[in-house]
Amino acid sequence: MKTNLLSALIWAFLSCYAATCHAQKSSTFNNIEKGILSGSKKGEGIRHVSLDVLRDFMKRFPLTTDVKWKRVENDGYIATFIVDSNETMVAYKKNGTWEYTIRRYDNEKMLPVEVRALVKRTYYDYTITHIDEISFYEQENTTYMVIIQDDKKIKTIRVCNGEMEETHQLMK
Fold it and tell me: Which residues contact residue 124 at a Cβ distance below 8 angstroms, ignoring those fewer than 6 apart?
């Protein structure tokens, strides 16, 4: 019963939104509708996502498309999507509170200059192969998990607040 009511509310909201936006720009609505409802049949993936979560998500990522929603054991929801060939994952608590965002990319030029310089200054013989940029609720600064490698080793470096820490090392 609650599921049907929530689905009806979401569809009513989207219908009203479509009617309002159609006069302005129908392409913007189509992007939002595709983003919210994609990755499942008839909106199945978002059937259990709270309206507070959807509102916050649409505010943070208004033009995102092809979003896939996953429920996390009654704790909340995770949305994943691709932006500019980079994977993004956003987590919410059940009540709609944003918890964290992880952006994953392989291009070291996307790293902030000061973070890249800090890593390269210490690990100048290593190549940066992957970056996870992590933003947490109630944490002002972004954390970067940087994977680097040379001929013999692969290392994971954590960078936050101008401080760097080696968290893992693997031998090839």
Answer: none
CB–CB of 65/81 below 8 Å? yes
Residues shown for the chain: 172
Q: Which domain holds residue 31?
A: 2-171
Q: Which amino acid is at 49?
A: V
The domain tally of the chain equals 1
Say which residues have a Cβ less than 8 Å from residue 6's Cβ, sequence separation at least 6. 47, 48, 51
The alpha carbon dihedral of 37, 38, 44, 49 has a sign of negative
- Taking a C-beta distance cutoff of 8 angstroms, is the pair 139, 133 a contact? no
Q: Tell me the whole-structure pTM to 2 decimals.
A: 0.71
pLDDT per residue over 57-97, tens digit each?
Answer: 999 988 888 899 988 877 889 999 998 888 999 999 988 89
Query: What CATH number did the domain enclosing 101 receive?
Result: 3.10.450.360
Whole-angstrom distance between the N-terminal and C-terminal Cα of the chain?
Answer: 55
Structure tokens, 88: 């993004």
